[in-house]
Design brief:
9-stranded mixed sheet; 426 residues; globular; 22% helix; 7 helices; 4-stranded antiparallel sheet
């Protein structure tokens, strides 16, 4: 059983009420070098080219003297603590950022990132950090008054890859091309819309939990996987002046239906279908959101450190990983196995309305799973993740309509609109 000790650090003081301002930026962080990619222990061949760019998207929110930067990166995990410290320091000095939140999409078609390096970080990673720092400065340099609103929808694009069998055991169910219902799965897509003063959308942030693994170990091209199609679908639906942010939730054992599809079996087509299905629901929800001005906006934040005890014998756990991954993959993708895993969690608050503005789990574990919860005045939405790579939290069961929704799901290439059940919450 996991036990948590919580350390609360209040990192900012209350500020005078002010209007909310925001700015966005986007930068290409695709390596120009051929790096070994994250996620599949059998894929030890370096990447050969780029299928679609890996981006970092930045949203800066300002209320009074406080500035929050949300960074969504098309990477398998977030940077190690030294890299995040460097980015945090750069953002503070260049743009007055008081809180930095970084969310990795968890794509398995991006380069490996390590917690720490014996020598200097690879050149591509240093270049990516520089570009993200510049993007934060760009967004902070183009702040404008904004209105915000939030709502939720529902859509199924995946299944639980470790479903419970009738005999009480679990089975591995990597791909689910017939879209059989499984549980537990959380279909909630949560959306925050940020509008300019004239009502045109500046940014749409969507939070959803599913592994971006349509492309499997035979893929040797950099790709954001299905979130690329998701963001593209949202931006096309809401016009060319909006930036869409895919924020990974708690994917745990949730795979897309068409996980690890071989390239020769139309993997790219199925990647796009998956992303478009999620993007269509996020765009539908975003279009229905009524945004409001926040004249008395105020942002505050705090950091809590949760200490989780390793549930298994340390040496047996390492031996199991070594057997599963092999010595080379474990060395490349692994991180030191600690008896106590310390996980910082950052929370930001809209003090004026006494509700949560954004919440990310800034995980320092080997598989970083930041997650978001965002609120606009009285409307709020949330998602969560546990700090380990093996135990994530989901709703205990599917809603009654889940099986029907999954049976109605159109096949890739079908002209029929995706079936979905949705609701707008406050």
């Amino acid at each position: 059983m996991l036990r948590a000790a919580t350390l609360l650090v209040l990192s900012a003081l209350a500020v005078h009420a002010a209007s909310l301002r925001a700015g966005v930026a986007k930068t290409d962080i695709t390596p120009t070098t051929h790096e070994i990619m994250w996620g599949f222990e059998s894929r030890l061949t370096p990447s050969e080219s780029t299928l679609d760019p890996l981006y970092a998207r930045v949203l800066v929110l300002e209320a009074g003297s406080q500035r929050l930067a949300i960074v969504a990166v098309d990477l398998g995990r977030t940077f190690g603590e030294p890299g995040l410290d460097r980015l945090r320091d750069s953002a503070r000095k260049s743009s007055g950022i008081t809180c930095l939140l970084v969310n990795a999409s968890h794509t398995h078609s991006a380069p490996i990132i390590r917690d720490e390096y014996t020598d200097a970080p690879p050149a591509w990673e240093q270049r990516a950090l520089d570009r993200i720092g510049a993007a934060i400065a760009d967004a902070a340099g183009h702040l404008e008054p904004v209105k915000i609103g939030a709502a939720t929808g529902s859509v199924y694009i995946g299944h639980n890859r470790l479903p419970l069998r009738p005999d009480g055991t679990f089975g591995w169910f990597e791909r689910n091309t017939t879209m059989l219902p499984t549980a537990p799965v959380d279909p909630t897509v949560t959306v925050l819309r940020v509008d300019r003063a004239d009502g045109s959308p500046l940014a749409v942030l969507l939070n959803y939990a599913c592994h971006p693994v349509i492309l499997g170990p035979d893929n040797l091209q950099y790709s954001a996987d299905f979130p690329a199609a998701t963001n593209r679908t949202v931006e096309q639906a809401l016009g060319g002046r909006v930036t869409s942010f895919f924020l990974q939730g708690a994917p745990g054992d949730i795979n897309p239906y068409h996980a690890v599809t071989p390239l020769q079996e139309d993997a790219i087509k199925k990647r796009d279908w998956t992303g478009q299905r999620l993007g269509a629901e996020a765009a539908r929800v975003a279009k229905e959101i009524h945004t409001e001005s926040v004249p008395d906006a105020a942002i505050d934040f705090r950091e809590e450190t949760l200490n989780f005890k390793l549930r298994w014998d340390r040496e047996k756990f390492r031996a199991g990983l070594l057997k599963f991954l092999g010595p080379k993959a474990l060395d490349q993708m692994g991180s030191p196995i600690q008896p106590i895993n310390c996980q910082p969690r950052q929370r930001c608050f809209d003090q004026s309305s006494n509700c949560l503005l954004p919440l990310f789990l800034a995980s320092r574990s080997r598989i970083s799973k930041p997650t978001g919860a965002i609120a606009a005045r009285r409307r709020w939405l949330s998602s969560w993740a546990t700090p380990t790579a093996t135990t994530d939290t989901f709703r205990p069961s599917q809603p009654p309509h889940a099986a029907a929704m999954e049976r109605r799901a159109p096949a890739p290439g079908s002209n029929r609109a995706p079936a979905s059940a949705s609701s707008t919450g406050q």
